Amino acid sequence: MVDMNVLWVFAHPEPRSLSGTLRADGARVLRELGHEVRTTDLYAMRWNPVVDRADFAAAEGERLIVGDASERAHCGGSLSPDIRTQQDELRWADAVVLQFPLWWYGMPAILKGWFDRVFVKGFAYGVRDPGTRRTRRYGDGLLRGTRALAVVTAGAPEPSIGPRGVNGDIEQLLFPLLHGTLFYTGMDVLPPFVVSGADRMSDDGCAAASERLTERLRTLATAAPIPFRPQDGGDYDDDLVLRPEVVPGGSGLGVHVRR
């Protein structure tokens, strides 16, 4: 057994919800397996999701260019203390569990704001490889080596979030998070754990969902990540477009995964 430091980022306003039960059961199982678990409960801590010049100690009246200001503040140690605390938690973590309900085809605003404020330039992105001078991203980001698992509850029933469902394929709905955020920053992104029909679930269904999550968490340290194509793995040209011989004629989100 590989013992890990696991950061559980929880974004649901009701601790007595199905999401709250899954978090409690999941954290308990991880500790029983020998892992150390820390929780960032965004609603409980009243996390501020709004990027503001106060994050970077930017002077009033100064034009705020967020990327540049965040990089200067990160390198200079002047980021807002709540941001620095979350960055320290990420540095500590070998794995991150991101748990949230699917609202309007995406994560709750409070979690999006956690990414906006914590994943600043110089910490999560925007650093060049000294040899190639290419920006490190898509498999070679600054959070490389950290495993990531999204735990998602959705009100829609399972068939409707499948490949032919009216709500769209859940893997594609989560692509901006899994590929565009987590893999972009270098994380090893595990297939998401999704609980469908969460709004109308019976007690037996809740127990079954908890058991399924337990089984997934047992392999948190060893499960194979989604085989996204790395930026510098040879599949993309200098314009970051798939080479013609890679999935010839193919397009869409799925072509960025090696099948």
Automatic annotation (TrEMBL):
One GO location term (cellular component): cytosol
Signal peptide range in chain numbering: none
Molecular function via GO: NAD(P)H dehydrogenase (quinone) activity
Gene3D superfamilies: 3.40.50.360
Stretches assigned to the Flavodoxin-like fold domain: 4-216
Family: Belongs to the NAD(P)H dehydrogenase (quinone) family.
SUPFAM superfamilies: Flavoproteins
PANTHER family reported for this sequence: NAD P H OXIDOREDUCTASE-RELATED, NAD(P)H DEHYDROGENASE [QUINONE] 1 ISOFORM 1
Domain of life assignment: Bacteria
Keyword Oxidoreductase: yes
Organism of provenance: Pseudonocardia kunmingensis
Keywords of the record: Oxidoreductase
Protein name: NAD(P)H dehydrogenase (Quinone)
